[in-house]
Design goal:
The protein is mostly helical and 106 residues long. It contains five helices and no strands.
Length: 106
């Protein structure tokens, strides 16, 4: 895979070239040792429920300006359908939980 890197932090080309080499070498070693996958998992976990794919009101099927009570009622209704124990999926329930959590923290 071809990539392009640039480094202009230092005043001379030799130092910039060394910085690029050290960056590439540390990235190569991290990938070889499996550290990059762990770092990606940690970064994903740190994002938490605040980063959603769809807006909370769309997930809950309510208006954007709806109060928490309406969001809670919609959550209870959809939780019955989307819960994995009732034929739903883990992903659908997770999205629903993130949506109601967003409304609760608002």
């Amino acid at each position: 895979r071809q990539q392009r890197l640039a480094c202009e932090r230092f005043s001379d080309a030799g130092t910039n070239l060394r910085a690029l080499y050290l960056t590439l070498e540390s990235t190569r070693l991290a990938a070889q040792r499996g550290i990059l996958k762990e770092l990606a998992a940690i970064a994903t976990a740190l994002l938490g429920p605040g980063v959603m794919k769809r807006p909370a009101h769309e997930v809950l099927g309510i208006a954007e300006s709806s109060p928490l009570a309406v969001a809670e009622a919609a959550y209870r209704m959809f939780a019955k359908e989307r819960h994995p124990d009732h034929g739903g999926s883990d992903a659908a329930m997770k999205e629903l939980n993130e949506a109601i959590e967003w409304y609760r923290q608002r």
